[in-house]
Specification:
The protein is α/β, with parallel strands linked by helices and 438 residues long. It is built from 17 helices and 15 strands. It is globular, with a radius of gyration of 22 Å. The protein binds pyridoxal-5'-phosphate. The site of pyridoxal-5'-phosphate has 14 residues, from helix 5. Residues 110-112, 115, 144-146, 218, 222-223, 251, 253-254, 279 line the site of pyridoxal-5'-phosphate.
């Protein structure tokens, strides 16, 4: 077998138009604070915190040092029937940041694994409390809950069904909350849409509460285009799930760690689910890690109710990996020492005004924002959906700004160390470039 001479051929890139990329490759070779450096030596302002993840900015020395030190001291420790101090310490620190009562922490390596872990915990809990008929899982249209079979089944993305078929059975979906007619150009949480949570009552009436284990939603859907929860919507989901004995899971893989305010969207919005999934900003993305925060009653239901031996038949070789735990501890220290969540909050108003100043620019049919997140929706090019946003993404990159294109939406979620001049630069570049696109 010959591999040929093409140095890009062997890598099958994830969620990438491989042929287009390899025809015009764009690579990143270094990063510092708010910027990436491209392989042709240019500084690229990071408008997306990598992938909604590098909340404290790039290559922060204290995180780098913590990883280096731990790599030399304890490269790896098996997490089954053994422990190491850093993972216990990090679990305690995470628990202290969660809403009251969600103080039991299970480690994973990614957002996708956190979602599948949360779904499995919900199923195990229902069984442990004698409600074994509750096996049905409810997600939401346009939900992105990662790429595991559980996550793509509860998620609401049509391409997963087109490419992978029927997925898990016994799954149903709430409607999404996106509505241009009622909510276009809303600032922050839209006032229309709380009633969409009532559909859960219809789903429960259809299937029977005794068949439903859990409901999972992102408090703010990020990856499918920044869908901000209507005022009162999450509160209704909480009320209905509680009434019917259904576990409520908030997928906070994006919304955690200062992205929309405090450590969680749940805490920021004052709606407490039973389980929270997280990843990304937990370690500032410096080492892969995810986690699931579980309420005490669910944890105790599974653990105390089990016979002697392993209580939850689940875990990963790298759960609580020492390098990830070290990165997580250093990241949480940095968030606190620099008051990064508070700093970001102090910019929420400026951010909102700046991104909404793009209203009226060519092709822009909606602008949405929450915390330090914005979604700028473009009118799809007739007969060629997604192409306009992809062209904007490429042109921005070539002009020194990293944005994210998802469908026909441009998403912004820069590191939380940003300053007003970075906001001005992002918005100014987009304002110019969007006018140059057909
Ligand atoms: C809400 C949500 N859940 C899960 C995931 C999956 O995370 P990962 O890519 O780390 O598996 C993502 C990724 O963007 C996400 O936004």
């Amino acid at each position: 077998m010959t591999l040929g001479n093409d140095p890009l051929a062997a890598l099958w890139m994830p969620f990438t138009a491989n042929r287009a990329f390899k025809a015009t490759p764009r690579q990143l070779v270094a990063a510092k604070d708010m910027h990436y450096q491209s392989d042709d030596g240019r500084q690229i302002l990071d408008g997306t915190a990598g992938l909604w993840a590098v909340n404290a900015g790039h290559c922060r020395p204290s995180i780098v040092e913590a990883i280096q030190k731990t790599a030399a001291e304890l490269d790896y420790a098996p997490p089954f029937q053994l422990g190491h101090p850093l993972s216990f310490e990090l679990a305690t620190r995470i628990a202290a940041l969660m809403p009251q009562g969600l103080d039991r922490i299970f480690f994973t390596n990614s957002g996708s694994e956190s979602v599948d872990t949360a779904l499995k915990i919900a199923l195990a809990y229902q069984r442990a409390r004698g409600e074994g008929t509750r096996t049905r899982l409810i997600g939401r249209e346009r939900g992105y809950n990662g790429v595991g079979f559980g996550g793509i089944s509860v998620g609401g993305i049509v391409n997963n069904r087109r490419q992978f078929g029927t997925l898990l059975t016994g799954v149903d979906h709430l409607p999404h909350t996106h509505n241009l007619e009622h909510n276009a150009f809303s600032k922050g949480r839209p006032s229309w849409g709380a009633h969409l949570a009532d559909t859960l009552e219809s789903i429960i009436a259809l299937h029977g509460a005794e068949t439903i284990a859990a409901v999972i939603v992102e408090p703010m859907a990020g990856s499918t285009g920044v869908l901000v929860p209507p005022v009162g919507y999450l509160e209704k989901l909480r009320e209905i799930t509680k009434k019917h004995g259904i576990v409520l899971i908030f997928d906070e893989v994006i919304t955690g760690y200062g992205r929309v305010g405090g450590a969680t969207a749940s805490g920021t919005l004052g709606v407490t689910p039973d389980i929270i999934t997280m990843a990304k900003g937990l370690t500032n993305a410096a080492v892969p890690m995810g986690a699931v925060a579980v309420s005490r009653h669910i944890h105790d239901g599974v653990v105390e109710g089990a016979p002697d031996g392993i209580e939850l038949f689940h875990g990963y070789t790298y759960s609580g990996h020492p390098l990830a735990a070290a990165a997580g501890l250093a990241t949480l220290d940095l968030y606190k020492a620099e008051g990064l969540f508070e700093h970001a909050q102090s910019l929420h108003g400026y951010w909102e005004e700046a991104v909404h100043s793009l209203k009226g620019r060519r092709h822009i049919i909606d602008i949405r924002n929450m915390g330090i997140v914005a979604g700028i929706e473009l009118e799809p090019r007739p007969g060629a959906p997604t192409k306009r946003a992809m062209e904007l993404f490429h042109k921005c990159f070539d002009a020194g700004l990293l944005v994210r294109a998802t469908g026909d939406i441009i998403a912004l979620s820069p590191p939380l160390i940003l300053q007003k001049e970075h906001i001005d630069e992002m918005v100014g570049r987009i304002a110019e470039i969007v006018e140059t696109i057909d």
